[in-house]
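Bumping my old thread because nobody answered last time. Still need a sequence for this structure:
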């Protein structure tokens, strides 16, 4: 196999955590026994970590080598090429993407059942998923606008990829006794929503995410293993975490199907419509200002966080709040310069109004979800996930509102005492 640094896909597991010793563990279950045997046959054996179910999340564990998974355990595109699918993939033009190759292999192996060499891994993969693309349409409608839009894009991408691959699937008919459409159905197409990755890592993907953990993950060319290390030691009887990346909750839900409580990277996105909601409708330069923001990448990823409005959001507001006679100074605004006392005050006031608007919206959505949970009993688990997201966004907005109120008071006090405004900004 050629030398490369693997990009690992994390499948969110039904039981997705590790225990550092035996008490109250899940290792006795047949699927985990088979998985450990299967891994041992591929030269991986671990005596430190044991699959377990935790009622909640403990403190983030950091430390030593968490796992060292041999190359023989990784499911890569090279694995697929060496399999019975290889000849079909290599002769197909254009060549199927790594994502398509991996997903085709997973579907084929799942269909093989007991005959599959990958059965121990396949049988612990989730039977259902909680990513928004898998949620019911009426639940998706309750998501924040930005996340709803991304979910619809993802759903369209999955459908397009699956539909455009039908001819390739049909070419595999000689491998199966059953009609190919019954094997590669629309339900299996949901697997194609996973990130376009280079490898899947059995056992490693049982590890849960914590945003508070820092890990180093890479393929070791010397040991030919995919290794994960943390920064400090782990105590016994505590759950071991890794970090999937510094992701906000909307991205975690979109890509992994869960929300992380008290996520330090959590934020609330401000849409373009909301951005201009509290600005003067009589501003003749508004369209030009919006165009400038768009051209310079300041119309997207405008957020409120635990520390208040982001620098990008405040900068966008300062430009939008420029007085007509100061409009020519827009480049200085994007560079972070203070233009005028009036501009600083107005942009801060608008930020407060937007924050309060989003607070009201979040509270209203929480009430709506709560009522729907009473009416749609079959959707309770999906609705609870959406409810958690809105509740976390509400907490972020409340923290932002407090920061803005403090900034406003400080700003006014400084203006009166010094006769000039301080620089107002939150990074």
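Sorry it took so long. Here it is:
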């Amino acid at each position: 196999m050629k030398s490369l640094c693997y990009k690992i896909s994390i499948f969110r597991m039904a039981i997705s955590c590790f225990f550092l010793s035996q008490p109250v563990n899940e290792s006795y279950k047949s699927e985990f026994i088979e998985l450990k045997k299967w891994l041992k046959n591929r030269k991986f054996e671990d005596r430190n970590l044991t699959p377990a179910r935790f009622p909640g999340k403990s403190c983030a564990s950091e430390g030593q080598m968490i796992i060292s998974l041999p190359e023989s355990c990784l499911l890569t595109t090279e694995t697929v090429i060496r399999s019975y699918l290889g000849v079909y993939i290599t002769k197909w033009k254009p060549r199927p993407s790594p994502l398509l190759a991996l997903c085709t292999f997973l579907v084929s192996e799942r269909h093989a059942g007991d005959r599959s060499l990958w059965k121990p891994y396949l049988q612990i993969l989730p039977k259902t998923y909680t990513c928004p693309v898998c949620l019911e349409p009426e639940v998706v409608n309750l998501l924040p606008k930005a996340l709803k839009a991304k979910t619809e894009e993802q759903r369209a991408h999955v459908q397009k990829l699956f539909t455009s691959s039908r001819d390739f699937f049909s070419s595999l008919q000689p491998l199966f006794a059953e009609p190919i459409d019954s094997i590669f159905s629309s339900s299996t197409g949901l697997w194609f929503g996973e990130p376009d990755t280079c490898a899947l890592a059995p056992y490693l993907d049982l590890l849960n995410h914590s945003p508070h953990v820092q890990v180093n993950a890479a393929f070791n060319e010397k040991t030919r293993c995919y290794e994960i290390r943390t920064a400090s030691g782990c105590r016994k009887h505590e759950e071991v975490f890794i970090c999937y990346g510094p992701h906000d909750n909307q991205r975690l839900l979109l890509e992994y199907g869960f929300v992380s409580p008290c996520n330090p990277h959590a934020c609330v996105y401000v849409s373009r419509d909301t951005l201009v909601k509290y600005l003067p409708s009589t501003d003749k330069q508004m369209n030009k200002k919006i165009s400038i923001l768009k051209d310079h990448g300041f119309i997207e990823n405008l957020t409120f966080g635990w520390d208040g409005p982001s620098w990008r959001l405040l900068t966008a507001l300062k430009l939008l709040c420029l007085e007509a006679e100061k409009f020519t100074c827009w480049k200085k605004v994007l560079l972070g310069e203070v233009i005028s006392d009036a501009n600083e005050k107005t942009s801060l006031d608008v930020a407060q109004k937007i924050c309060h608007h989003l607070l009201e919206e979040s509270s209203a959505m929480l009430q709506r979800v709560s009522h729907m949970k009473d009416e749609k009993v079959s959707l309770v688990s999906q609705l609870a996930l959406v409810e958690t997201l809105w509740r976390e966004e509400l907490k972020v907005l409340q923290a932002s509102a407090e920061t803005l109120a403090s900034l406003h008071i400080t700003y006014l006090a400084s203006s009166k005492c010094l006769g000039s405004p301080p620089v107002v900004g939150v990074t």
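The longest strand covers residues 65-70. Let me know if any region looks off to you.
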